[in-house]
Amino acid sequence: MLNIKLNMKAALLLTLLLSLAVPVQAGNGLIKYADVKESGKYVRKHFVERLNKPFDETSSKKKAILIGDSHAQDFLNMVIEANRLDNFQISTVHIITQCQPYLGDELNQFIKTKDRANCEKGFSIAKSIDRIKQADLVILAANWKEWSIKQLPTTIKNLALSDQQHLLIVGRKNLGKVNIRHFLRMSEEERIAHRNKVDKKQVSFNQLMQETLKERKWIDVHSDVCGSSSAQDCPVFTPSGELISFDGGHLTPAGAKFYGQKLQIPSL
Q: How many of the other CB atoms lie within 10 Å of CB of 72?
């Protein structure tokens, strides 16, 4: 009787494993992205390698400084994976999301009390002015907040870039909730066709960016990938079925390449 029960349990376990094996194998490597912490290592890698790195004065490449949070890290991955901005040596400055890329008076009026100490001791645009003055291209990329978008004209004015310098402002992105388990139940065709509803703030902040920057050129990441500046949803898989974002905010290697190929970067 005991052997019969054990055999029944083994059969049930085998059936469960077989049922799980099919979607995992068909998921185009999806299961590995369930480990968000591990995926985050890719997001940071290239950015950290260039963190606060002095420009090489002997290089024939032009100089670019990329300033921002994890969205700046994603932007660097986009241009690397898609072979964009290859004629630039890129130095990076990390500003945590709570502090934002802002250059002006009274930063504390915009920052929550609990974050002020970290913002004061961390890196900022103001602390990077010397490197900014050396750069041919200044790039600001962040998970922008409402206040920092509204303050962009002040930040741009205070940067006081010369006529020979270029400024690129990179818009924020959001791909909604990523549910790996849900995606594993889909066929490849369903995943490729699937579009996620984005966070409510994404569209309103994107519109605010347009209104604030007016005629100034900026990289509308949301429009370039999702179809328009006001798109309410975005693709979560590339046309070849690879996952674009593992958490809705940050990109996989395939996602970075997909974004990088889509970005409308002006000639520099």
A: 23
Residue 187 has pLDDT above 90, yes or no: yes
**What does the pLDDT look like over 43-81, one tens digit per residue?**
999 999 999 999 999 999 999 999 999 999 999 999 999
pLDDT tens column, 159-183? 999 999 999 999 999 999 999 999 9
Task: Decide: residue 150, CB within 10 A, 0-12 exposed, 13-18 middle, 19+ buried.
Answer: middle
Collapse the DSSP code of 208 into the 3-class scheme (helix H, G, I; strand E, B; otherwise coil) and give the result: helix
Read off the tokens for 86: 């290859």
CATH topology of domain 32-262: Rossmann fold (3.40.50)
pLDDT of the residue at 15: 45
Structure pTM? 0.89
Longest dimension (CA), the chain: 87
Q: Is 192 helix (H, G, I), strand (E, B) or coil?
A: helix
Residue 118, classed as helix, strand or coil, is helix
Domain boundaries, the chain: 32-262
Distance CA 252, CA 86 (A): 20
* HSE of 21, CA atoms in CB hemisphere, 13 A: 6
Helix or strand holding residue 117 (H, E): helix 116-121
How far apart (Å, rounded) are the C-alpha atoms in residues 66 and 47? 9
Query: Can you list the alpha helix ranges (DSSP code H) found in 137-199?
Result: 146-150, 152-159, 180-184, 188-193
